[in-house]
Hints:
Blueprint: E1 2-3, H1 5-22, H2 28-51, E2 56-60, E3 64-66, E4 71-78, E5 85-91, E6 98-100, E7 104-108, E8 113-121, E9 126-130, E10 133-138, E11 144-150, E12 154-159, H3 163-169, H4 173-179, E13 193-199, H5 211-217, E14 221-226, E15 232-238, E16 246-247, E17 250-251, H6 252-269, E18 273-280, E19 283-290, H7 295-303, H8 315-325, E20 331-336, H9 343-354, E21 358-365, H10 367-373, H11 380-405, E22 409-414, H12 418-432
Amino acid sequence: MRPAPLMLWLLLAWTLLGVAASLGQLPLSAWLDAGAALAVLAVLDAWRLRRTASPELQRELAPVLPLGPEATVALHLRNPTKHRQPLRLHDLHPGGWAVRGMPRRVTLPPGGALRLDYATTPDARGQFHFGGCHALLPSPWRLWRGRRVLGEPSSTRVYPNFAVLAELAGLSVELASRSVGARLQRRRGEGTEFQELRDYRVGDSLRKIDWKATARSHRLISREYREERSQQVILMLDCGRRMLAQDGPLAHFDHVLNASLALASIALREGDAVGLLACLGQQQRWLPPQQGAGGMDLLLGAGYDLHAQPLATDYLAAANALQVQQRRRALVIVVTNVRDEDDKELRMALSLLSRQHLVVLASLREQALDDAAHEPGVELETAIRSASAMHYLAERERVHETLRREGVNVLDVRCAELSGALIERYLAIKRGNRL
């Protein structure tokens, strides 16, 4: 409870009366009587404020919010008293979130209810908590303001922007892939696995005829196909210090997570199972391959609170952990930012994985380095920066070439092109049936 502006003005007036009494222009008893009356009024008003019932409040908040778009929070207020209740409200939303529509001044009608909506924009992924709603409630005579905390705390989880995934779900695999930048080639054949040769049957497509076998046997021979078995895709994400770099409004890891979920959406629709291994320093977070409609929900739940940490990634520990967890052969997509100092350890880790799995390495290319390398070197400082960036990129490409010679499928890609590049390479491997 704290004094309201009216109380401060009354105290100022009483002080001026005291000055007048000290100058002999007002009897001292009148000043004392005014002070006693003011004290009685203040005590009575404070007592009435304490006895005033607080408004009832319920917060309506979605349990899951997407990162980026504005979200709406609804406050349902009810006045339990028979008098009007003017309030000044401020909901205790997570710090750092942009808010539109708070704080708010409202007046509740006697015994009435009111709904207030305000907008907030999450600024990061993870679990977040809303405290109670702070309310300033004036006393009946407006001498005091009481601070009340209304409602119960609530929480929500902020996921990557799944609105993009919903848009992809409404498109065919071809259109969804092209919408994120994948350049697809026409699919050849039946899209199924070859099983055996057999005699030609009436109605068989000409594409099924094996002309070499026909020439050898002097009769028409057709290929028999069976439906492709579901394959498994493992997203192996670097959550170390390399992913803290910023490219546009998002950190590298946010770009990686968005691209990985877009790829997972396509792979699940293709009938494959998708798993996740997040490398956190020397620790890992593992989600076994999931299949079907619920697979995306599990992937979102497993990765929504992942963040890059200022730690060095242990590639060998991650590779060993994956070998233990994933016994079946799979397409392992490793997403990191390759640097020349990673040469030995990363090569050992990828070599270990390649013994059992088909490995694709997506190496993020920082836009700032490309800009620095192509910056005209007019001044000495600019020339040195440009030469350093060019040397760094050359050493990075050297590591890439070494990995390619050892059989690793390497993608050198910028963040803005990552989704399209991953989906394009996945579909090329999937339709080539290389697992």
